[in-house]
Amino acid sequence: MHKLLTDEPGKKMLLLGNEAIARGAVEAGVAIAAAYPGTPSSEISLNFFQMSQESELYFEYSVNEKVSLEVAAAAANTGVRAMCIMKHVGMNVAADALMTLAYVGVRGGLVILVADDPSMFSSQNEQDSRYYAKLSGLAMLEPSTIEEAKDITIRAFELSEELEEPVLLRTTTRINHSTAVVTCGDISPPKTKGDFTRNPMRYVTVPAVSRKLHVRLLDNLARAEETANQSSLNFTEGKGNWGIICNGVSYTYVSDAVQELGIEEKATILRLGFSHPLPREKVNSFLAGCDRVLIVEEGEPVLEEAVKALAQEKGKLLPIGGKSTALFSRLGEFNPALVREKISAWFEVQETLHDKQEPLIQAELAPRPPTLCAGCSHRATFHAVKKAAAGMDVIYPTDIGCYTLGMLPPLGMADFLICMGSSTGTAAGFSRTLDKKVVTFCGDSTFFHSAMAGLVNAVFNKHNFTLIILDNGTTAMTGHQPHPGVDMEKHGLSGFGKIDIEEVVKALGVGYLSVIHPFKLNKSIKVLQEAFAYKGVSVVIAREICTLYGKSLKMPKMKPFYVSDKCQNHKDCIDQLGCPAFFVKKGRVNIDPDRCTGCALCAQVCPENAIRPVKTNDK
Ligand code: SF4
Ligand code: SF4
C-alpha cells in the first residue's frame, strides 16, 4: 500500500513537504486531482498518480495547467473535493480559467496548490504568486513548516467550502523539498460522485451573469477577510514593541533568529498563514503595540506595501522596514543567517560570532553546472542539427525541458526562450523579421502542453521554420511523468488513451514531416538538411527514449565505449559533444564505463574511428 494511504491516526512519518501536502489532501477526502508536472511541486502529483492506482482517488496528468484547473473546477462544482497542482509559472497558464472561476466559485472544496521558486532553482523566473491572490480576489494560505503543510491543506479544503471559492495554497521550494516528521490524522473517505443542477444564469459567464458574479466575489472576499482576522493561522508570539511580520518559510527563520539573538522579550512576531486577504483588523491591532516594524517576506514586497498602506490609512507613524529600505532584496531565497543579520541590523542588536559561520560552509560546495546526461539523445540531435545547418545563418528559439541545456557549450543550441510552449510562436515571429533560417525545438510533453497551438498558428499563417520535436517518450525534466503521447499499456497501466504526435502533425497540415532516430547520425543529418530546405513549416520528430528513463524502465544496457590506442588526441569528441562520460587524464581522453550508456554517438564523431564498444578481450 502507498505509504500516504496508511490509515493509522497518530502515526508519525518522515515526509517531504510535497508528501505532507498530498497526505493532507488525502486526509481531507480529495476525490479528484489534476496537474501538469512542474518543479518544485512535482512530487505532489507523483504521489497522487501512485495513490490513484490503488484508491478511489482520480488523478490525471493534464496537458497543461489551464486544462488541469478546468477539470478540477468542474468536479468541484459537482460538490466533490478537488485539487489542482502547479508551479508558479504554471499559474500564468491557468490564469485565464482562474480569473473567471473566482466569479463562478465552487461547491466542493477546490485547493489550487502553487509552488513558487525563489532563487530559480529550476525555473525561468521567480514571480511571486501572491499577486494572483490579489488579482483573482481569492483567499491564500501559506504554510511555514512541513507539519503545517499537511494541516493547512486540510484547512484549505474547509475554507474553500465555507467561502464557496477556490483557495490558493502557496508554498516555496524550501517547504516543498524539505523533510520533517508529520503526525497522521484520520483519512476522510472521499465523496467521488457529485451532482449538478443546470442553472445557466449562475454558471455561464456571459456579461449579464458575470456582472452579478463579480458582486458575489467581492462579498466573498469581505467574508474571507473576516475569517482571516479570526484565523488561528494568523497568530502573534513573543512580547515587546519591536514588531516582525512574516509569512511562509520566513517565519521559521524569524522564530529562530529571535531566540538566537535573545530578543524574545523585545520582539513580537505576527505570522500570517492566511495571508490574503490581509487580516487588516489583526494587523492594525498589532501595529498599535509596535514602535518599529520589520517585514520579512521572500519575493516581492507584497505584505510590506499592504502594511504600509494600512498604517498610513490609520495615521500611524512608525518605521516599517523591509525591501524598500534596502534591507532585504527582491532577489532569491532567504536563509536563517541572512534573516538573523537583517533583524539585528534593523533593531540594532549585536550578532554573535557563531551566527556568521554559516555562509562559509556554503562557500565550500563545489559548483555543479547542469548538463545533459551521458547518452542523452538530445546531444545527438543537436549535433546532427549543427552539421545539417553548417554554412547556414540560423537562429534557434527553444522551449522548456532538459533540452534547454542545449544552450551550453559545446552545443550552443538555444537562442531565445520565454515560456513553456513558446518555441513555435517565437519561431514564427523570428521567421517574419529575420533573413535567417529558423530552427526551433520542443519536447514531446511540451508539444502537447502548448507548443501545438503555435504550430496550428504557423500552418494557418504560412510561417517558415523547422520545428524539431524531441520525442523521448516522457516528461523528462520534472521526473518522467507521462503525457498523452506515452503508451501506458507498456507500463502495465490500463485505462489511458495514446495520441501519436506524427498523426497530429500530419492532421495539422504540416507540409514536411520526417522521423529520425538521432543516434543514427548520418541519416539524421540528411533528413534535417531536407527539412531545412523546405519552404514553409517543416517538422522533424527526433525519437529516442530518454536514457535516464530507459534505465528506470530497466531497458537492456548497451556496452560502454572506450578510447582505443588509435586515438590521435584531436579531442573532437569533447569539443563537439561534451558528453559527461568523457574525462581527460594525463592529457588524453578517456570514457568512464560506469557513466557511458553505449549510445555510440562519439564513435560516429571520432575522425580516427578510435572509439569502440568494449568487448571481451578488447582491453
Ligand atoms: S533526463 Fe533524459 S532527457 Fe533529460 S538530460 Fe537526462 S537523458 Fe536527456
Ligand atoms: S558512447 Fe560516447 S557519447 Fe555515448 S554515452 Fe558513451 S561516451 Fe557518451
TrEMBL record:
CDD domains: TPP_IOR_alpha, TPP_PYR_PFOR_IOR-alpha_like. It is an enzyme of class 1 (oxidoreductase). Its EC number is 1.2.7.8. Coiled coil: none annotated. GO terms for biological process: small molecule metabolic process. GO terms for molecular function: 4 iron, 4 sulfur cluster binding; indolepyruvate ferredoxin oxidoreductase activity; metal ion binding; thiamine pyrophosphate binding. It comes from the Bacteria. InterPro entries: 4Fe4S_Fe-S-bd, 4Fe4S_Fe_S_CS, HACL1-like, IorA, Pyrv_Fd/Flavodoxin_OxRdtase_N, THDP-binding, TPP_enzyme_TPP-bd, Transketo_C/PFOR_II. It catalyses: indole-3-pyruvate + 2 oxidized [2Fe-2S]-[ferredoxin] + CoA = (indol-3-yl)acetyl-CoA + 2 reduced [2Fe-2S]-[ferredoxin] + CO2 + H(+). Binds 2 [4Fe-4S] clusters. In this family the first cluster has a non-standard and varying [4Fe-4S] binding motif CX(2)CX(2)CX(4-5)CP. The keyword S-adenosyl-L-methionine does not apply. Keywords: 4Fe-4S, Electron transport, Iron, Iron-sulfur, Metal-binding, Oxidoreductase, Pyruvate, Transport. Residues 587-616 form the 4Fe-4S ferredoxin-type domain. Transmembrane segments: none annotated. Its cofactor is [4Fe-4S] cluster. Pfam families: Fer4 (PF00037), POR_N (PF01855), TPP_enzyme_C (PF02775). Heterodimer of the IorA and IorB subunits. PANTHER family: 2-HYDROXYACYL-COA LYASE (PTHR43710), INDOLEPYRUVATE OXIDOREDUCTASE SUBUNIT IORA (PTHR43710:SF7). Catalyzes the ferredoxin-dependent oxidative decarboxylation of arylpyruvates. This is Indolepyruvate oxidoreductase subunit IorA. It comes from Desulfocapsa sulfexigens (strain DSM 10523 / SB164P1).
